[in-house]
Amino acid sequence: MTALPQEFVRSTVDREGDAGAAWLAELPGIVADLLDRWGCVPDGTVMHGGVGVIVPVRRRTGESAVLKVSFPHPGNVHEPDAFAAWRGRGAVLLHERADERYAMLLERVRPTTLAEVEDGDEVVTVAARLARRLAVPAPPGLPRLRDQAGAWEEELRADAGELPHTLSRQALDAALATVHDLGRTQPDTLIHGDLHARNILRADREPWLAVDPKGHVGDPAYDGGTLLKSRALTLIEADDLRKAAHRVVDVFAEAAELDRERVRRWAQFHAVRASFWGRRQGFRVARGGPMLDWLTGFTDRLAEVLTDRR
Ligand SMILES: Nc1ncnc2c1ncn2[C@@H]1O[C@H](COP(=O)(O)OP(=O)(O)O)[C@@H](O)[C@H]1O
Ligand SMILES: [Mg+2]
Q: At 66, is the secondary structure helix, strand, or coil?
């Protein structure tokens, strides 16, 4: 295998410590074994995301594919189950899986991600149409988001009490009401769970295909919230944050054929959680310092403007 991307090595050790370093030391051997097992040869530069390496390969048939090996973490267990359920409709095809290695052989698509598209409405529309395609009856055994509602509520109450923040009472109450009203009873629908533009790739079989699903089961409008949260940095430049945020909600709800109020409420919930998450862990773009303070303040404002219907 060609060298591991340095940034991936650094971020894995930063996040996972000794366990990360131990896994990275094993990784070249894991990749070599899997290439051998699945009859593939490397075919290009190794890529990475936040948790996995992506090795472009060629199969015996000559077909191009990628080998994805993720850091062994409970959050990465259900990715192959989601791909298997979709059977290539709206997402890349799963060719092989090695669950004990957190590894999959996947259809290779193009390197361009939806994040490279400049038009904000187009980004949101593409993501929403995919969300609609991906919302299929869920197989048993996948994690139900409704089972997390109790933990979400506890976490929100604890964070609000322990962390300094600028969120209003109304914003906090709205997030808690979303957990209560939408979180506790959710449909048995498979959703992506981490829908954002870098997890949507250019393809030929369909114009865009999803990668990197969590395999969560719940309200498809939840993914409207993850998408909007991931658009936060693009909203910073908006002259009118309220208008820009509600525009994302409108465009997503329309293209995904979802109730706009549900999308707005999940988006508000995600923004509140992101504010607290940022204060506890930092964000990918800012781990600390004045930039992080500024960003968490911005995320508070985002939650605030999404608290009202309009
Ligand atoms: N099937 C694929 N075909 C081509 N490139 C891919 C494929 N899957 C992932 N990639 C590339 O690798 C990056 C990270 O992949 P991803 O599955 O999102 O990893 P992570 O779970 O670490 O976020 C993607 O943004 C994309 O650039
Ligand atoms: Mg990803």
A: strand
| CA distance linking residue 91 with residue 203, whole number of Å | 10
Q: Separation of 106 CA from ligand 1 center, angstroms?
A: 10
Domains within the chain, CATH numbers bracketed: 6-107 (3.30.200.20), 114-305 (3.90.1200.10)
138 burial (CB, 10 Å; 0-12 / 13-18 / 19+) is: buried
Name the pairing type of β-strands 208-210 and 216-217. unpaired
Catalytic pick from 81, 159, 194, 300? 194
Asked whether 56 lines ligand 1 (CB < 6 A), one says no
* Residue identifier of the C-alpha nearest atom 22 of ligand 1: 49
pTM equals 0.95
Tell me the two tokens of residue 120: 């904000």
CA-based Rg of the chain, rounded to a whole angstrom? 20
Tell me the C-alpha distance between 195 and 199, whole Å.
7
Instruction: Report the separation in Å between the CA atom of 110 and the middle of ligand 1, taken as the mean of its atom positions.
Output: 10
Atom number, ligand 1, closest to the C-alpha of residue 106: 1
Cβ–ligand 1 distance for 200 under 6 Å, the answer: no
Atom of ligand 1 nearest to the CA of 199: 18
The yes-or-no answer on residue 181 being catalytic is: no
310 residues of the chain, pLDDT tens digit each: 568 999 999 999 999 999 999 999 999 999 999 999 999 999 999 999 999 999 999 999 999 999 999 999 998 999 999 999 999 999 999 999 999 999 999 999 999 999 999 999 999 999 999 999 999 999 999 999 999 999 999 999 999 999 999 999 999 999 999 999 999 999 999 999 999 999 999 999 999 999 999 999 999 999 999 999 999 999 998 999 999 999 999 999 999 999 999 999 999 999 999 999 999 999 888 989 999 999 999 999 999 999 998 7
- 156 in helix, strand or coil? helix
Residues 268, 96: Cα–Cα separation, whole Å: 38
Distance from the CA of 133 to the center of ligand 1, in angstroms?
20
